[in-house]
Amino acid sequence: MFRYILRRVLSAVPLLFGLLTITFFIIRLAPGDPVSLYVQGDVDPRYAENLRNALGLSDPLPVQYVKWLKGTLSGELGMSFSKHAEVTRILAQTLPNTLLLTFFALLFNFIIGIVLGIVTALKRGSAVDHTVNVTSLFVYSMPEFWLGLMLILGVSLHLGLLPASGMHSPMAKYMAMPSYVWDVAKHMVLPVFVLGVASAAATGRYMRGSLLEVINQDYIRTARAKGLSEVLVIGKHAMRNAIIPIITLLGLSLPFLLGGAVIVETVFSWPGMGKLTIDAVFARDYPLIIGCTLVSGVMVIVGNLLADVLYVLVDPRIRYE
Question: Using CA atoms, how far apart are residues 228 and 230, in angstroms rounded to an integer?
Fold first, then answer.
């Protein structure tokens, strides 16, 4: 297992390198000049040229690439144009916020999705099955930005039940630890729901199909013929095999959630990687865009690797040589 993980990690290095190289050239070939965001039209052209030299934008593109490559290989991601700080420091401040949001959205996705899948599989053809299936398709087709805005209008503005945006209340730093945690939890409810509900609908559909396939197998009928309770048959025998395809979704859900986080964090002003990426794109902040791309790529690779490892834990028959 260790050798397999090591091979996967080593094979991910060229993938990340290619991803960052493509990103490097795409953002620099895109229209627009980062300097134009920081100088006015009547500013002395010499000042704009000095600023461009200071940012390293006057060099030919191949020279910029070589400088970037040397810095990246030495562990330096450069300075942010817009925030005037080291990219690594900015990422270290925002990444935990996105991980917090993504973790609970992933938890919400799998708990709700698996429960709905089990219920609809056991109630196949009933009114409950049809209602859940139709509702799941409706929720899955809903745009995240629209759902987020509707929840802000209804739950936050009209009902006043939950905060509409941000991660903390204005006076959060003066709160005691229990109150601080509760304050963050309240701010998380809406973005976690919006980020995880569409994935939960898809997971529920996958779980339903997988469980329906398993419960028709011979060994399930044998377990029932032995007089085992339905809870034991489904919980111990059927779920152990039905859950294996769902684990595949763990690796696939992470990039989906990261992509959704860009929209959700912007709608709810959540100070994470998604909102940071949007701000960096609008500011044409090249070093920060590449830094965000690097972190997102690493998280996607880790998610897929985690799914492969979980295969072995769920099904001991699987071995990686």
Answer: 7
Q: What is the pLDDT of residues 146-186, one digit of tens each?
A: 889 999 999 888 888 888 888 888 887 788 888 888 988 99
Helix/strand/coil (H/E/C) assignment for every residue in the chain: CHHHHHHHHHHHHHHHHHHHHHHHHHHHHCCCCHHHHCCCCCCCHHHHHHHHHHCCCCCCHHHHHHHHHHHHHCCCCCECCCCCCEHHHHHHHHHHHHHHHHHHHHHHHHHHHHHHHHHHHHCCCCHHHHHHHHHHHHHHCCCHHHHHHHHHHHHHHHCCCCCCCCCCCCCHHHCCHHHHHHHHHHHHHHHHHHHHHHHHHHHHHHHHHHHHHHCCCHHHHHHHHCCCCHHHHHHHHHHHHHHHHHHHHHHHHHHHHHHHHHHHHHHCCCCCHHHHHHHHHHCCCHHHHHHHHHHHHHHHHHHHHHHHHHHHHHCCCCCCC
- Answer for the pair 295, 20: CB distance below 8 angstroms, yes or no: no
pTM summary value: 0.80
Say if domain 94-279+301-314 classifies as CATH 1.10.3720.10. yes
Among all chains, which residue has been given the structure tokens 């980062």? 34
> Which two three-digit tokens encode residue 92?
């270290």
